[in-house]
Design a protein that fits this description.
With about 60 residues, the chain is an alpha+beta fold. Helix content is about 55%, strand content about 20%. The longest helix is centred in the middle third of the chain and has 25 residues, at about 20-45. The radius of gyration is 16 Å and the shape is flat.
Length: about 60
Amino acid sequence: MSILSFSKGPSVSIDHVLTDSGKDLVPVVFEMVDMLDKEFSEKVFRDHTSRTFEQVVREKSARSK
């Protein structure tokens, strides 16, 4: 589903590249995340508020800066 490549040097770099079959699964994963968020937001989020996948990604990105 994905291909790993390693780069040697002062720091190690690991890259993931999705194969075609892995890319085919992306929409399925998004749908699963959306369904789980709607059905189980009280278990997933501390504030029990449902979020879209895009909102989760934005929040995680903002926290990591």
